[in-house]
Design brief:
Helices cover about 15% and strands about 35% of the residues. By secondary structure, it is α+β, with helices and mostly antiparallel strands.
């Protein structure tokens, strides 16, 4: 095959341009400290020297690695405080607190413990701006009431508060 001077010049120019573009891109990534993420279209070519156990793409029976659990600081939470821990039957009790990880407007419900099960009461509230809430309930069962606030539709609960009803 015969290559002309013009073809050689074009190949050298294309190579030089490619090197310049690659080095500029990697210099920018290096300057920001960013690591390039593999794109979903990239695929690894199988290595015939690897066994199926060494190459997870060729072994569909191998289970994927479990995703890491969110840290406790990023998990939603609810705090609660009762304005009075000792009341008479039918007296109102106001529960206030703050939430973390729940959007403004998210519904909350007061629950009380009956026979080891948590039963929702009619007292509800929504998360306000600033992640706070306030709800009021009348307690009609004499004796100690174990109460908590729950985020509706999520498994997020406040610590238990005990109110003595006489």
């Amino acid at each position: 095959m015969h290559t002309t001077q013009r073809q050689i010049s074009r190949a050298l120019a294309a190579g030089a341009l490619s090197v310049a573009l690659l080095s500029a891109g990697s210099a920018g990534a290096f300057a920001t400290g960013a690591k390039p993420a593999p794109s979903p279209t990239m695929s690894a070519k199988p290595n015939p020297m690897q066994s199926p156990k060494q190459n997870p793409q060729q072994n569909p029976k191998q289970s994927p690695k479990p995703s890491p659990k969110p840290s406790p600081s990023t998990m939603p939470s609810i705090s609660v405080k009762a304005d009075n821990t000792s009341v008479h039957v039918g007296d109102p009790v106001t529960f206030t607190g703050r939430t973390s990880g729940l959007k403004v407007g998210w519904p909350l419900v007061l629950q009380h413990q009956v026979g080891g099960k948590w039963i929702p009461l009619k007292a509800t509230a929504k998360v306000k701006n600033g992640s706070s809430y306030s709800l009021t309930a009348k307690l009609n069962n004499p004796g100690p009431e174990h109460l908590r606030v729950s985020a509706v539709g999520k498994k997020v609960y406040s610590p238990t508060v005990t109110v003595n009803v006489s």
